[in-house]
Amino acid sequence: MDRTPDPWGVPLSSRPYRQCESYLQDSALFKAFFLITYIVAFLFFLVSVFGLFDPYWSAEFNKPSPFYLFFLIINSPPINVPTIWLNMGMTLLYTVFFLAILYFGIKRWKGPSLNNPLIYYGSMASFGLFMSLLIVIIEQAMGIQIGGASIETGLQNQPYLSFVQLIFAPYAEEFGFRILPLGLLSVYYVARARGTGLDSAAAFVIPGIMRKKYGLRLTRWDYVLIIFTSILFGAAHYLLGAWDPGKIISAAFVGFILAFGFIKFGIFVDIPIHWFFNGFTTVDLIVPAVTAPYATAILWTLLSGVIATVFLIIIAIERKGRYGEDGSFREQNSFS
How confident is the model at residue 4 (pLDDT cuts 50, 70, 90)? Predict the structure, then answer.
């Protein structure tokens, strides 16, 4: 085998694959494709905001909605708050997060695609949606029950309040399954790297930015925690009674996407991606007027998911060099 060094630092025999990855990672056209997916999601977020504050639903505004947080699989006792206040708080934060994705995405436009939060959002959200659908189709063909009937019933009988709880869930669940465990680990790493008190505290919510600042790489403990919390996230969907066992695999799969989004960037990426699965896929229930364009948007995101799947397969093939010839794992800097 020819092992002559090349610009990619891999054998010549692997060069075509590396060139393909480099093209996809740096191609403005490729990035523009997933930028459109982000724009589609953001536009439907704005549609959902219109729906949340539409006077048509004014009778629901002062009804109580539970506010709670998860601590891994345990959730705090709910506190009832007026739905309109919960909506205002969520809308403000979601708007800040979506704009933060846009800001940092433009700032990092010339860098590798998956190190850009804008491209990560467009590609990984659509990838997760496509793969979740594929998993559900396979499971149903095998006779495995997915469940979720209680959620469907709630959306049909009380669409507004059910939608509010669906888009609040990303805050409660991301806090318990991603922010708390992975954020605390990042705080420890930044503090150990002699980070300032402010930077250490910031690592709790924007670990990727702070860890990159101090040149910190993902460690084995990061991967262990990502795997553990993602599996626990999948299991929680079944253990808490809302879904059947078939939901575990797809929810755990999405959990990996959310965990890497958080650890690579911060709460401004994983929470909006979680909204994508809960809010984007149900927004037509509170704004029926968008049903036609919504169907087109779903088709676009599924196409985007197919493209993202091919992209990730190419990367998986190319990055075999991450493992030594003896099979040992070489830690990589995921924040460059």
Answer: very low
